[in-house]
C-alpha cells in the first residue's frame, strides 16, 4: 500500500471528509466498472457503487491494511449485489408460491388503497427532503426528482463529480436517519 493511500485511509478512519473524497475518486471507476460488467446496466451499477462506498465509509474502521483496499471495496460491492439478487429471488419465490397455492394468477396492478399508500409515502418523503439542509436537499432533488446525471448535477451546483457523489452519500444517509426516526 502506498503511503498516500495509507494516509487517506487513516484520515478517513478519523472522519476526514477530504480523505473520503480522495478514496472515492481513486476507486469509484474500479467499483463501478466491476459492477457494470456484472449487471450490464449503468443505473444499477451506479446505485450499487454508491451503496458500496456508503457501506465502506460507514465501516472504514474495520478495514484491515494487510489486504488491498480495492479488493475490500470489490468484496463489499459483490455482497451488496448478492443481497439484492437474494431479495429479488425471495420476492419472486413468494409471489410464485401465492399464485400456485391460490390456483390463479392475481392481478398485480395497484389498487386504490395501494395508490393512496404510495401517495402518503411520497408526501412523507418529500417533507423529509424539505427538512434537509443545503447542499443535501438540492443534490437529492436533482438526482431523484429531476433524474439528473452526476455530471449534470456537478454542472448545476458548480462542484466536482466527486463532491456530488460524497454529498449524495451523506444526503441519503441523513434521509435514511430521518426516515427511521419517523417510522419508530
Automatic annotation (TrEMBL):
RNA polymerase sigma-70 region domain span: 25-89
Domain (RNA polymerase sigma factor 70 region 4 type) ranges: 124-174
Listed Pfam families: Sigma70_r2, Sigma70_r4_2
Keyword GTP-binding part of the UniProt annotation: no
Sorted UniProt keywords: Sigma factor, Transcription, Transcription regulation
Record-annotated membrane-spanning stretches: none
InterPro entries linked: RNA_pol_sigma-70-like, RNA_pol_sigma-70_dom, RNA_pol_sigma70_r2, RNA_pol_sigma70_r4_t2, RNA_pol_sigma_r2, RNA_pol_sigma_r3/r4-like, WH-like_DNA-bd_sf
Entry similarity comment: Belongs to the sigma-70 factor family. ECF subfamily.
PANTHER family (alphabetical): RNA POLYMERASE ECF-TYPE SIGMA FACTO, RNA POLYMERASE SIGMA FACTOR SIGV
Protein name as catalogued: RNA polymerase sigma factor
Species of provenance: Capnocytophaga bilenii
Amino acid at each position: 500500500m502506498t503511503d498516500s493511500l495509507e494516509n487517506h485511509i487513516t484520515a478517513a478512519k478519523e472522519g476526514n471528509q477530504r480523505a473520503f473524497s480522495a478514496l472515492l475518486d481513486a476507486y469509484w471507476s474500479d467499483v463501478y466498472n466491476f459492477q457494470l460488467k456484472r449487471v450490464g446496466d449503468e443505473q444499477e451499477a451506479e446505485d450499487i457503487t454508491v451503496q458500496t462506498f456508503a457501506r465502506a465509509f460507514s465501516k472504514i474502521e474495520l478495514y484491515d491494511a494487510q489486504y488491498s483496499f480495492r479488493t475490500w471495496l470489490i468484496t463489499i460491492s459483490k455482497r451488496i449485489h448478492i443481497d439484492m439478487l437474494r431479495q429479488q429471488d425471495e420476492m419472486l419465490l413468494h409471489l410464485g408460491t401465492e399464485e400456485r397455492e391460490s390456483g390463479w394468477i392475481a392481478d398485480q396492478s395497484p389498487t386504490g388503497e395501494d395508490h393512496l399508500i404510495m401517495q402518503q409515502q411520497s408526501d412523507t418523503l418529500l417533507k423529509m427532503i424539505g427538512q434537509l439542509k443545503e447542499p443535501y436537499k438540492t443534490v437529492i432533488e436533482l438526482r431523484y426528482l429531476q433524474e439528473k446525471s452526476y455530471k449534470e448535477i456537478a454542472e448545476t451546483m458548480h462542484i466536482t463529480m466527486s463532491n456530488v457523489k460524497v454529498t449524495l452519500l451523506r444526503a441519503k444517509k441523513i434521509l435514511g436517519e430521518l426516515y427511521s426516526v419517523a417510522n419508530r
